[in-house]
């Protein structure tokens, strides 16, 4: 930096007994005061120097120094006269003395070398005090939970990136430096990961359970089917609870309920009815979770970061599928099928204790306003820029406290064409995804002559890549939004990538002759599917921050119906056409994908809606039904 003529100051630094001697005739310069040590770190590590508050706040951490470049990065907007070094805390900028013109460059170079050496020693001391394992875990977690702050580059509090905090204080330092809404996203991701682990455990355990109990295939199918029955029936009530009381209250209760039901499954397996009841409870608890997570995101994350927050949270479902299926066989083989339920259910109970005893008290101290918004006592969705506030004006009006109006306007939801389009799209989306996942191993074995182990592995590839792809989709959507693209266009773009990309892949597989290309196209279509998390699953948040949970509860019920219908219809069509995969699988799924994307693009506008101001009166068919029931002598009020 000496060639720029910048003055870095003079005087002794901390840890040196005295300053180097000055050339004769030069006036003495005041000493720089070292910043206070960061709490919880090595005493040798001190906070990085920053530019004056009157300029752009650009930190110069010790890790940025290098012998191959300038000691402190200099923004181009700063002039030579404006450059000062000051501690981050406490100390005030000191008046600089101007050296004689002939010695300015020499003085600046000497002080740069002193500062570089001192900060390099401090950085080395801090690095040695942090464990390598803690730093690695913190970096991995930071990359998966930077949902809300990624759009702005740092958290709402202006904190440094989580990786830097991890280097300073391990996992504890990383957690302490994480923005409050990112902590919620991280907890929600773990919750949904445990959700899918609790769903797939029975698919593995049912084999040894059936052999031990002597169950027939119909009994095994009944036990597994009751999970989906509970899931489907709980979606709408779960959405109502999330919107009326707050997803923060609903999610931990739902997770604790399904975890307890999972934990007692080995005892309940003594009879088929009791085991079936536990699976129904597990399904019902997990049917509540998506609406609760969407409600949490709507209340705490601004529009600019909602796609990233949503895709990161729901990416936990993909993690749960992979972790659950990979961990289950060795647990069953080594410890017995009972241990699988004890471990998976116990992990959920541990999450509940961690969330209620550690996460929520920490959030209440870190961001009381956001914590209040989680239970409906205050409205808000994270920090907003002026542009976001203007764009979300209607949603802010709709997100008034729940006490203002206790009725969730379901009839107003169903009258809105945007909601009708969302329901159709969710139905088509889930019909494609779950039908293909359910029948793909059979298709690979029977039509492509693959062995079962190969077919099972290839069917798991989309789940393995799902978490990464969903996070990329969310950040891509937020990047488009930050670039000025209108919100409806952003959502329709990423939803088109999901559904049109999947349809194009099926067309390619249908036209391919080489089995390798068929497998590749199928997996490519399923890999593109997670882009729906940045489109379809963000739409309830866009339409209404207040009623996001209730809206997703309705559309998720349609999605569950689509999955059940598609799986059953594929089998019926295969039987009716003599095993034709074109008629039973390809043509129906390509058709529903095209129908779903048409409904979304043509009829779903993602601009906020004040549903409280919409018509919520009874439908005509309701009045006719009530009149008919009264005619039968039934006690119908109203």
Describe the structure.
With 638 residues, the protein is mostly helical. Helices cover 67% and strands 1% of the residues. It is built from 22 helices and 2 strands. It is found in: Membrane. Belongs to the major facilitator superfamily. Sodium/anion cotransporter (TC 2.A.1.14) family.
The coarse overall form would be globular
Helix coverage percent of residues? 55-70%
Tell me, rounded to a whole number, the average pLDDT: 76
Can you say what the CATH homologous superfamily of the domain at 408-637 is? MFS general substrate transporter like domains
Distance between the termini: 81 Å
List the helices and strands in order. EEHHHHHHHHHHHHHHHHHHHHHH
Poorly predicted segments:
1-20, 34-102, 121-168, 377-388, 394-404
Indicate the proportion of strand residues.
under 5%
CATH topology of the domain at 408-637: Growth Hormone, Chain: A
Main location: membrane
Pfam families: MFS_1
Biased composition (Low complexity): 17-37, 86-99
GO molecular function, one term: transmembrane transporter activity
Question: What does the secondary structure layout of this molecule look like, with pairings?
Answer:
Blueprint: E1 49-50, E2 59-60, H1 104-129, H2 132-145, H3 162-177, H4 180-213, H5 217-245, H6 247-263, H7 265-268, H8 272-300, H9 306-335, H10 337-366, H11 368-374, H12 386-391, H13 393-398, H14 410-415, H15 417-448, H16 452-482, H17 487-511, H18 515-528, H19 539-543, H20 548-576, H21 581-603, H22 620-631
Antiparallel strand pairs: 1-2
């Amino acid at each position: 930096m000496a060639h720029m003529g910048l003055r870095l100051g003079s005087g002794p630094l901390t840890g040196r007994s005295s300053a180097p001697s000055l050339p004769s005739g030069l006036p003495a310069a005041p000493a720089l005061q070292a910043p206070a040590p960061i709490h919880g770190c090595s005493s040798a590590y001190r906070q990085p120097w920053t530019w004056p508050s009157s300029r752009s706040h650009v930190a110069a951490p010790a890790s940025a120094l290098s012998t191959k470049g300038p000691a402190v990065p200099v923004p181009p907007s700063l002039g030579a006269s404006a450059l000062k070094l000051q501690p981050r805390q406490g100390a005030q900028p000191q008046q600089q003395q101007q050296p004689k013109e002939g010695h300015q460059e020499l003085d600046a170079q000497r002080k740069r070398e002193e500062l570089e050496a001192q900060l390099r020693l401090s950085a080395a001391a801090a690095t040695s005090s942090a464990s390598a394992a803690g730093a690695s875990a913190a970096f991995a977690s930071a990359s998966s939970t930077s949902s809300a702050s990624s759009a702005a580059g740092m958290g709402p509090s202006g904190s440094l990136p989580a990786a830097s905090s991890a280097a300073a204080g391990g996992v504890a330092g990383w957690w302490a430096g994480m923005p409050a809404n990112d902590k919620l996203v991280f907890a929600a991701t773990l919750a949904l990961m445990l959700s899918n682990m609790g769903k797939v455990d029975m698919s593995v355990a049912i084999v040894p359970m059936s052999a031990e109990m002597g169950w027939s295939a119909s009994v095994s199918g009944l036990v597994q089917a009751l999970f989906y029955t509970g899931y489907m029936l709980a979606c709408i009530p779960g959405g109502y609870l999330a919107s009326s009381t707050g997803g923060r209250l609903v999610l931990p209760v739902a997770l604790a309920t399904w975890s307890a039901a999972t934990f007692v499954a080995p005892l309940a397996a003594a009879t088929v009815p009791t085991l079936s009841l536990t699976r129904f409870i597990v399904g019902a608890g997990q049917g509540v979770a998506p609406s609760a997570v969407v409600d949490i995101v709507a209340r705490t994350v601004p529009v600019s970061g909602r796609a990233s927050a949503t895709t990161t949270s729901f990416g936990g479902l993909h993690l749960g599928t992979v972790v659950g299926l990979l961990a289950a066989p060795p647990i069953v083989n080594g410890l017995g099928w009972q241990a699988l339920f004890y471990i998976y259910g116990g992990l959920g109970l541990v999450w509940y204790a961690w969330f209620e005893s550690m996460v929520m008290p920490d959030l209440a101290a870190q961001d009381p306003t956001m914590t209040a918004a989680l239970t409906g006592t205050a409205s808000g969705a994270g920090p907003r820029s002026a542009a976001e506030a203007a764009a979300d004006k209607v949603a802010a009006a709709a997100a008034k406290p729940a006490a203002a109006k206790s009725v969730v306007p379901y009839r107003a939801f169903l009258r809105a064409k945007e909601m009708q389009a969302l329901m159709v799209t969710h139905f088509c989306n889930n019909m494609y995804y779950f039908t293909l996942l359910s029948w793909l191993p059979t298709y690979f074995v029977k039509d492509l002559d693959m062995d079962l182990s190969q077919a099972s592995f290839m069917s798991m590839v989309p789940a393995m890549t799902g978490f990464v792809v969903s996070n990329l989709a969310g950040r891509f959507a937020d990047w488009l939004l930050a670039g000025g693209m209108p919100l409806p266009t952003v959502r329709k773009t990423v939803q088109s990538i999901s559904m049109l990309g999947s349809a194009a892949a099926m067309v390619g597989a249908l036209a391919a002759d080489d089995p390798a290309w068929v497998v590749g196209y199928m997996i490519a279509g399923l890999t593109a599917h997670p882009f729906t998390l940045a489109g379809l699953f963000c739409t309830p948040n866009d339409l209404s921050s207040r009623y996001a949970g209730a809206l997703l509860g309705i559309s998720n019920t349609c999605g569950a119906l689509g999955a059940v219908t598609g799986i059953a219809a594929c089998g019926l069509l295969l039987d009716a056409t003599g095993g034709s995969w074109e008629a039973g699988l390809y043509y129906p799924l390509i058709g529903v994908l095209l129908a779903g994307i048409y409904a979304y693009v043509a009829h779903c506008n993602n601009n906020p809606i004040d549903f409280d101001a919409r018509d919520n009166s009874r439908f005509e068919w309701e009045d006719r039904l009530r009149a008919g029931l009264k005619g039968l002598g039934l006690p119908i009020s109203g």
